[in-house]
Amino acid sequence: MMLLLELVWRFMVVSLLAFGGGQAALPLVERVAVAEMGMVTPEDFAAAVAFSYVTPGPVLILATFIGYRAAGVIGAAAATAGIFLMPWLLAAAAAQVLQRLLQHPWLQAFGRGAGPAVVGLLGVTALSMSVRSVTAWPYAVIVVVSLFLALRMNMNPIVILLAGGAAGVLIGMVNGVTA
Q1: Quick one: how far is CA 85 from the chain centroid?
Q2: Please, are residues 26 and 56 in contact by the beta-carbon 8 Å criterion?
Q3: Sign of CA dihedral 139, 141, 146, 151
């Protein structure tokens, strides 16, 4: 029961601190799930992030996965409730005053400063994941090709993820890695 309450609490905090959307929460989710609580391994976290991009609401799906790994189906429900509860309550409470608040210069200035901070946090997460994911030169090639396809060819991210996964399977087969 304590683990379930911990899941709800931790993901409520994540959802409250996710300025800039779900992507901004990735560094915090990684810290909580991997470093602080050991709910998933760093490799599992990287795989979960990759797979979650194939679904709607990637970080929300990630919370459900971590909850499941920590405490099964009930843990998945607890983490999902935690990640949704506070944003839902805050959105419902703020609906009446939102338009007025968005015009406030202080809030606009906050957003202009928080945006670059989110970019920096995403960079930290990308670096952390790359250390665990790019373990040999073929994987570095996947990174470069993925960046090229995303930036220059404007290719759908799902296609890039599936192609990267297929390349990983091929690399594993060549290196004699089996399931």
Answers
A1: 18
A2: no
A3: positive
Sign of CA dihedral 90, 59, 80, 17: negative
Closest CA to 44 of 57, 59, 58, 33: 33
Helix (H, G, I), strand (E, B) or coil at 19: coil
pLDDT in tens, the chain (179 residues): 888 898 889 888 888 777 666 677 788 888 888 988 898 888 888 888 877 777 666 667 888 889 999 999 999 999 999 988 888 888 778 776 766 777 788 878 887 888 898 889 888 888 888 888 888 899 999 999 999 999 999 888 889 989 999 999 999 898 876 55
CA distance 20 to 112: 11
The pTM of the whole model exceeds 0.85: no
Give the alpha-carbon dihedral of 53, 59, 60, 65, to 10 degrees.
80
